[in-house]
Amino acid sequence: MPKIYEYLGIIIFFYSNEHEPIHVHAKKGEFESKAEFIISNGEIIEIRIQENKGFKPLKGTDLKNFKDFLSIYADKIVKKWIDYFVFHRDIDFERITKKIK
Question: Which of 23, 30, 75, 97 maximizes the CB count within 10 A of its CB?
Answer without folding.
Answer: 23
